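Hi V.,

You were right to ask for the full record rather than a summary. Here it is.
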Amino acid sequence: MDTSQRLTLNEAATHFLVSLSPEERQASQSEVYKFVRWYGGKKPFAELAAPDIANFAERLSLSDTDYAGKLEIVRSFLICAKKQGWSKGNLATHLKAKKGKTPSRSLSHRGLPEAIPLTQQRYADLEAQLASLRDKSSQLIGDIRRAAADKDFRENAPLAAAREQRGQIEGQIRELEETLKSATIIDKEQKTTLKVSAGDSIALRDLASGEELRYILVSPKEVDPAKGKISTASPIGKAVIGQSQGEIVEVAAPVGKLRYQIEHIEH
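Predicted structure:
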C-alpha cells in the first residue's frame, strides 16, 4: 500500500490547509476539521466512500447555517484529495445540498405521520397563513377565468402565469393542512420549564472543538438551513427536544457520538 493510501483524514486536512493562503486557511479550517471529526481523524482517507459523503451533505443541509458556503469548503477539500491521489474517485461529486427533505416525509407516505409539536401562537400563525393562501387561490381562479376568456393572446402568457402561481399556492396549502393536521399543541406550563421545544432558538457548544452552534427548531415543513432553521426530526433536533439548559446531549455520527452542551434556550 502506498503512502497516499495510508493517509489519515487528519493528515489530509493538514496538507490541504497548509496549501491555502492565510486568509483562506482561517476561513476553511473550522469546516474542514468538522468534516474530519464527523468520520474520525484516524480514519484512512482512502476508506471514504460515496455514501459517506452523501450522508454528510444531508446532515449539513439539515442542521447548519450557511450550508452552501460550507459545502463549498468541503468540496474544495475533496477535489484536492482527488488531485493528490488520496481518494480513488472524485468524492466531491457526491457532496450535494439537499432540499430540506427529512425522513419524516417518507413516514407520512406510509400512512404514519409524525406528530409536529407547535406552540399555540405558532399554530394560530399557520392557520392565518392558510386562510390567506386560500383567499389568494380564490382570487387566482378569477384571474384564470378572465385570462382564458381573452382570445387575443397567441400564447396566452397571463393564463399560464396565473395557473402556475395557483399551482404553487395549492401546494403550500396542502403542506400547511398536513402540518396543522399532525400538530400537537405545547401548553404554557411546558414552556415555563425552560426545556427545549419546537419554535425555540438554541445555542449549543461542541464539547470537542468549543465551537458554538445556533439553531431554531421548526417542523419538518419549515426547514430553512440558510436561516438556521432545523427540523425537530433531524439528529440534533431529536437529541435536544425536551432537554434543559446546561444539559449535555449526544448525536450519533459515523465516528461515534458527538457531544454538545445546551448553553442557551430562548422560547
